[in-house]
Task: inverse folding
């Protein structure tokens, strides 16, 4: 028997239940994975609250790393004993073991520990597509604005951007978090509680604004993000931590400088196995060779999922968090 976190209704962290479950054998195109570490992501709260609707009851979590214990019929490219990681559907990563479709798995190099993989697969692949696919025209010497620079994606993004020669103006809520982001490669930090974000960005860019804003906050920041863009700039609204993005008036985009807006989802950038392998390969190479460091600042037992979600939603966590066994 295995253990898992499940939820039967949407709501606050209290709806998460620690249960004993029966896993069973893998079917056609499936494998059974024994988890060594499970990732905690802000997107998990979207499923719990119903912002991302799913059938109930259901499991929780979309990211984990572990070892294949059994292989079902028709599986190619993976074998019992392989180290793997994954991010994406179906829900159920908050578990000690589970049956997974093999198409969701990524081979994990020996050089990367399970905890590191669980902390970075979603965030790392997100960073990878943000920097390598969304705005491929970004080049060394360019400056971008990144909200939540001390978050899990933020710290990876700052390091990778520095490797590419891109200057990051980051935002955060405290001086302590600002120092963490700077230590990971951010050049400038803005405390949005104490400073005028738009005025400071304009000051740092000689009045021009930035060509790209990467915004994972959503409702609370979208208007200011648009005002920080240079002419024909791009707002990449890849998260909604503060709530859904309100409707955007298309005419206002013209008035503010012929701006562009995209609301991307990781799933559309890793759906193709070849592209997923390419993005993961570049990420793993950076991490394995020490160019990007993944710092796990919070560890929880899986049965502490309620507390982990509370910490995530109140901003008490910094960088990456994982569940370990």
Result:
């Amino acid at each position: 028997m295995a253990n898992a976190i499940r939820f039967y209704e949407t709501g606050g962290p209290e709806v998460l239940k620690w249960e004993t479950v029966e896993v069973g054998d893998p079917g056609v195109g499936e494998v059974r994975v024994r988890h060594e570490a499970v990732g905690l992501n802000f997107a998990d709260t979207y499923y719990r609250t119903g912002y991302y609707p799913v059938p109930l009851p259901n499991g929780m979590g979309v990211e984990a790393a572990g070892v294949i214990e059994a292989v079902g019929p028709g599986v190619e490219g993976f074998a019992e004993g392989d180290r793997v990681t994954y991010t994406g559907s179906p829900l159920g990563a908050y578990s000690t073991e589970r049956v997974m479709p093999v198409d969701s798995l990524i081979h994990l190099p020996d050089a990367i520990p399970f905890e590191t993989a669980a902390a970075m697969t979603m965030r790392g692949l997100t960073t990878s597509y943000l920097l390598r696919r969304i705005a491929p025209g970004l080049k060394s010497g360019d400056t971008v604005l990144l909200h939540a620079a001390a978050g899990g994606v933020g710290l990876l993004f700052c390091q990778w951007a520095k490797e590419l020669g891109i200057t990051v103006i980051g935002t955060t809520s405290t001086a302590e978090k600002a120092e963490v982001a700077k230590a990971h490669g951010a050049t400038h930090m803005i405390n949005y509680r104490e400073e005028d974000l738009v005025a400071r960005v304009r000051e740092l860019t000689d009045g021009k604004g930035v060509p790209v804003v990467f915004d994972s906050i959503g409702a609370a920041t979208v208007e200011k993000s648009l005002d920080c863009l240079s002419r024909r700039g791009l707002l990449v609204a890849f998260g909604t931590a503060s709530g859904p993005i309100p409707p955007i008036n298309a005419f206002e985009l013209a008035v503010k400088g012929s701006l562009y807006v995209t609301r991307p989802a990781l799933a559309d950038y890793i759906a193709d196995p070849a592209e997923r392998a390419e993005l993961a390969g570049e990420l793993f190479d950076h991490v394995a060779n020490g160019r990007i460091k993944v710092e796990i600042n919070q560890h929880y037992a899986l049965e502490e999922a309620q507390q982990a979600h509370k910490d995530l939603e109140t901003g008490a966590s910094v960088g990456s968090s994982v569940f370990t066994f």
